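User: Teach me something about this protein's shape.
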Amino acid sequence: MSQPYDRVILGDLVLPDGVMKGGYVAVRGETVAAIGRGEPPPAVETEDQSGRLIFPGLVDGHMHTASSIGWPGIEGATLSAAAGGVTTCVDMPYDIPLPVTDATIFREKVEWLHRLAHVDVALYGTIRKDGGAEAIAPLAEAGACSFKFSTYEYDAVRFPRIEPGLMREAFAEIARTNLMVAVHNEDQELVVKLTAEAKAAGHTDPIWHCRTRPPLAENLANLAIFEIGLETGAHVHIAHSSLARGFDIAESFRRSGARSSGEGCLHYFCMTEEDIVRLEGFGKCNPPFRTAEEVERMWAALLAGKCAYISTDHAPWQRERKIYKGDIFALGAGLTGMQSFAPVMFTLLEERGLPLTLMAKYLAAEPARYHGLDPKKGSIAVGSDADLCVIERGSFTFDEARILDRPEFRHSAYHGRALRGRVAATYLRGRRIWDGEAVLAKPGEGRFVPRQHDRPVALA
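Assistant: First, the predicted structure itself:
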């Protein structure tokens, strides 16, 4: 084209099929206009990230901005996302004081996003415990990218258990939209029974969080939700499998004709039961950490193509709600994960000698695809939003004090973790919003991203 590009960014591009060394991304407006290597084309601005790796901006397919302080939490969560190379958050609906159960609440949340968000955000919807399946079609029309239910109840209003009969009715409605429904997968009755027994016996130290939520609790829930999905035709997705067995179960249901899948969270690829003993409340999440052997099985499942994508399940609780004082059951369950996502995943791949293309695929392209945000999000491709995560190799240490969220949320299970890379820059729609030291985006510069199409997700 005769006119120069608005911006050209130089660096080594991490693409699905390999790394393009000495490459460039040319931006016109907010989208990628060209990619290539060698002599860069003329541009109004050229930003030299030579020697650094340029990934697609990460798409976190599972995070909570508003579960602890309500919609004002959007600001801090997306601020830390920008610093962590996450350019699109897919936010859960379990907000304080009310979950996103109808189109009116949904549209109100979108307004808050446009006031507070530093990065782009897509949204889940859900239903009430006492019904609400009739709200599914309007939520889909309002732009929801997916739905979320739970088989375990944390709060009867904010985060309820959806009983099988209502789940069956709702799944049938969701099947008509071609959207995915993710499910928190822990069996209520088993966990309640084991927890009561542990408390009665005085077992309240951290390891008992793992003992009272055993693999069986996950697998019972997995079987139930996939059976309902098989009957209704809905695409049913494990919201966070800590077990390779979960991916095997999803695969077996696919062979029977079901639309079934599951994601893993980053911590299940590196944290073990020993870590909750060390971290105490700061390592409490649901499902809990598993054994070192299970971590290896998770990696094997990922490399076999059985895991849909990797997410953070970022769920920040105030520090005082994570401090262990003798009863692990009294503490909030959830980890912070925005700023650690890219550097920890990059480090794990480097330590294991695995291709960096896995990060581009499972932390960007695939979550965007599963949530119907492609081709706008998730890829460095002509026509896609110019969202980029720039990684600089080196020797670094993750410091929770540098988390760019409210002071009470500045804690991390990865504090002190040695890293082989850091996020040196983040670009959102062609504009640099993180320069390695400060977030340059203002609240409200992030946008709501509705689902881009109504095609069903192609499953292997």
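Now, about its shape. The domain at 57-370 is CATH 3.20.20.140 (TIM Barrel). The chain has a mean pLDDT of 97. If you'd like, I can walk through any region in more detail.
User: That's plenty for now, thanks!
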